[in-house]
Amino acid sequence: MVKGKPWRIIPRPLLETVLNNHVQHHRVPQPLILHGPRGVGKTTLILERLFERWNTGPHITGYVDFAESIEDYHPKHGQSYPWTSWTTCPPPKLVTLKDQLENCLESMTRRAIKLGTISSHQIFTILTKWHSPTTALSQILNKDSGSRMPVKSKKNRVSTSNLWDSAVFKLSSGLSEQELDGVLDKSITVEEGSYYKEAMAALKLAKEVIRIQEKWRENAVRDLNNRGGFSRSLANSATDWPCLLLELLSLAAEMDYFQPKLVINNIEVLKNAVSEDDRTLWGSMYHDSLIWRIIALGANERCLPVLLVTSDSYYSYRAFMDFGFPDIFISREMFGWTPAEAKMHMVGDYFSQSEWDVIVEVFGPNPRHLFEVYALKLSNYYQKVMNYKSTFEDIVDLYLAYLQVNVVNPAMDKALLLLEKFAVDAQSGKVSKDRLRFGAPWRHPPKTEIQSWAKIQLMDFVQSLVSAEFGVNYLADCSLEFFDDPAAVALLEVGLLYTQRDPSFIRPISRGIQRCLVRWLVQERIGLSFKSSIQYHWQRIIRGRSYRHLLLQEGYK
Fold first, then answer.
1. Which of 109, 292, 317, 380 is least enclosed, having the fewest CB within 10 Å?
2. What is the pLDDT of residue 556?
3. List of residues 6+ apart from 181 with CB closer than 8 A
4. Helices (H), 379-479
5. Which residues in the chain come in under a pLDDT of 50?
6. Which residues touch 531 (CB under 8 Å, ≥6 apart)?
7. How far apart are CA 291 and CA 271, in angstroms?
8. Rounded to two decimals, what is the model's pTM?
9. Cα distance between residue 244 and residue 242, in whole Å
10. DSSP-based three-state secondary structure for 448
11. What residues does 262 pair with on adjacent strands?
12. At what angle do helices 120-130 and 190-216 cross, to 10 degrees?
């Protein structure tokens, strides 16, 4: 291993200031989405530059990374994030992601209880605001005795508050030292200890009430999963507990005393999570319900700052429209460095001028590309691959081959499968007629030779991007029809293309990935049989895509 200068995290003063100003408020009206292409340093910015500052003094920040459960592609398990979309990885279980989020929020709530900003009465008030806990409380109180709840007349009926007090008293006596750890210490008085203990028991009781009510809806959820469709009440029942904790924490927030905030990284993983059985909802419905309720809490009563961090371009534009209107979230888009900025930080410390000229031409200034090339430069691994003394150009070629073989080619195979599925769905009538309008290059998928059709469609699309210099403006010339193209949707879904918000371009996630897409097209054209070559040229001449008219416009503000 060649010794070199350690890689340093370079500050981004403007973006850091914007995010710091947002989280300095104890309550805000909207969640913030930090989005951008892969490899530009979003997670590094949060964890290395901001997270420590957001956990000092009155500030406490909960951090949830939904990708942690994907062990083959996460730094926590000694791996690296994938270059392509999380949809190309095995989907995690929804119950695992729910536990991550709930454990984080419960930890912050215990901190609030210790500071005295959340009491048993507040928990009861929030619980009865959205739920009717009487039956569940009676069931909890009668659980140990095994007796049925007595039927009382209207005059003798026990009030909900009395049932709550009885259940809290019952649970208080059964709290273990582990459950009270971090809340009680030797310096507090007996009265203070009783107050904290009561609040912890109330928190445990509220969770048990919601779990009981969620269990009552299992048959309804099973029926919904079998029939398909959507039910807002059932979707909300799955997110009742985390949203109750969010509302508790938001109401408990105080300037300069207790200022909680929540960062959810890789939020798109939640959308693709799978359930273990048909008694629980799918991840997409849970994802939508959680975001809807965060939006509602912020709009109605103000919510603690919630930051959603993602590399999925769905959250740069489409999510804003799906959840209401273009400004329903606060959008902060991160693109990394310009070539001039990257040169200022890289040349001299990590690369020579001649090396930099090669890198910026082949890969562009993407920070992750720069780090991986620098790591490869310091290692002697490439010497083992090559049987001769390698030059820097050989290192670049080796890294480019790695991207081609391990990133782009598998992602293109996945995109081909998505196009084949589109063809099958179109034949069975599952695709709307609007997407199959007259003149669309993909209007007539065949019943046979679907694989050949899918490959020609994808090649035609990549060729059209090459002709448009990989800069299609999807808002220009009413070109939202661009999203009707199944090839465009497939490449966006696998993560090789990124939809910018401002300016409104669709482009590859980096120049290195762009170069690999061109190489893929060349390789596929060389490998075509005579028949397939005739079909490809017919497609290009008669039905070929063309996005040149979207090339020159800058986009709309």
1. 380
2. 39
3. none
4. 381-385, 392-403, 409-427, 450-467
5. 1, 149, 151-155, 552-557
6. none
7. 11
8. 0.91
9. 5
10. coil
11. 62, 306
12. 20
